[in-house]
Amino acid sequence: MDAAFTAEQDEMRRTLREVLGKRCGPDEVKAAVRTAAGHDRELWQQLARQLGLPGIAVAEEYGGVGCTAADLVLACEETGRVLLPSPLLATAVLAVPLITALGTGEQRSTLLPPLAAGGLTAALAVPGPALATALALTGGNAPGEWAGGGRAGGVQARAVDGGWRLYGEVAQVLDGHSASLLLVAAHAGGFARSRTLLFLVREDAPGLVRARQTTLDETRPQGRIQLRDVEAELLGVEDADVAGALAATGRGAAAVLAAEAVGAAGQALARTVEYVQQREQFGRAIGSFQAVKHRLADLYVQVQAARSAAYYAAWDPEQGGLALAQALEALRITAGEAIQLHGGIGFTWEHDAHLYFKRAAADELLFGPVHRLRAHAAEAAGLFAPAVSGPGSASASASASASASVPAPAPAPAPRNEKVAV
Q1: Which residues of the chain have pLDDT under 50?
Q2: What is the value of pTM for the model shown?
Q3: What are 42-62's pLDDT values in tens digits?
Q4: Backbone dihedral region of 382: left (phi > 0), alpha (psi from -120 to 50 degrees) or beta?
Q5: Hey, which of 250, 382, 403, 416 has its CA 20 to 30 A from 364?
């Protein structure tokens, strides 16, 4: 394995950092998230035209750049540094892999080119607050655990006149209020042929009602969608392995999210280091105090470890869950320390440090929590598999020899007839 970045990757990172540095300061981010779309549409088109950002991981035959997942991870580390509000996560990281994996040839040819060009945006809608479950980040993603099985709950799909109709509601959809195309996970078949399928719903479909939600992290806007007998198109075929495609998408998304969190944590740390060199107490900069140096050194080690894990996950997506856990933890701790080390001004709700703290809290709610990410990774690796024990097993023999070498306890003395004061 060659862990060094290529010249093209270094140039892409440099160019993206330069563009975002000019257009994505804290004030610009706050202004963008308060627009109707929740992001700067002009900047999104600029990133699509100049860098091909939405189509980095899309094959060239569909109008994409044709780069690897590692390139998308590097790009998202830069977008995470500035907390870029954009449809990149919902479109390029969640929707595009699902359309590529499950879509028919006609659907891929129709949808992927405009998605790669940035003219079309997409969002994945799964019932309830179950995005992490559907993507198999915190456990198995059997449809019955999150898709609203039976005849009620979630989104229900029924076949009508050779097509499909959807009915239901999804409360938390990343960019669901503004996406031009929705990928909706819906339950079909009732009890007899219970299964979960993915459907394509256009933004102008009759019966589709959308509204933006108030969220903790405004840089990740969410919408509530209501489907009132909405006409939909099946993505792929009815016997497609939807759960498998979602799990594969989740592994790639975990590496991207880890890189975003690392970028945010690194920037929060850099801004904190800059601040403690300027703020003075007792006639000297607080960054010169040994206690502050130690705290910053610990943060630096944690951020660098998370960055290494994110880069490794870009090469091996199977490690995405662990990398995401480490990165989310690094971001949460770094953002919290940033508020502390900024002193009284850091505790004001309007301070920029809270943008990073909100991102840390919201990402862990959406894609975690950290302890469940790690528990699922440990379970998948078989770290806590029960030891096999039997009459002839090694563990049984060891137990027998151990019990033989330990003397039997002495018999307890007979109770005496004594009164005890209470």
Answers
A1: 393-410, 412-422
A2: 0.88
A3: 999 999 998 899 999 899 999
A4: left
A5: 382
